[in-house]
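Task: sequence in, structure out. Protein: YjbE family putative metal transport protein.
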Amino acid sequence: MLSLSSLTALLQVVLIDITLAGDNAVVVGLAVRRLDPAQRRIAMLVGIGAAAVIRLALAVVATKMLAVIGLRFAGGLLLLWVCWKMYRELRTSEARHEDSAPAPGALRSAITRIIIADLSMSLDNVLAVAGAAGEHMWVLVSGLAISVLLMAVAATLIARLLDRYRWIAWIGLLVVLGVAIELIVGGGNEVLEHIT
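Result:
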């Protein structure tokens, strides 16, 4: 079970997770930033729990997903929709006083955004982790667990920063928008190559 190749694969997986967890953490932090602390914990637990299930499900079918043309493009469009929702929320919160209570349904909305964003952004992470893990299933499962844990820790820190420094939320939105555009362009190129 423990061999040099499996330990090397685990190290690669951890490095991939550290590199790719940031984008997802920004989305989670942006989604929960306006919730009160109790709702924030609920949204993060449910959203990150759903992220774990999504990543495990994606990992099970990761090799088959490589053959699906347009999947990255569709994920980019979903993420673009998440960006639009975040943009509207940021503009609304700028217009209102920050001390006002979260809008009704804010918890459900935050959880929905976390799940949709994670679904659209996790594909690259899962494929990279599955590729690095190779035939070592325990490395794959460990890598997915590490990525979810990193996302939870980073999202908590990001949400706290966003509470104190609102301008960071706009930078975070630009980061997520960049990921959406990258997915759309990359996925669009795949579709065009397949058509031609």
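Residues 4-195 form one domain.
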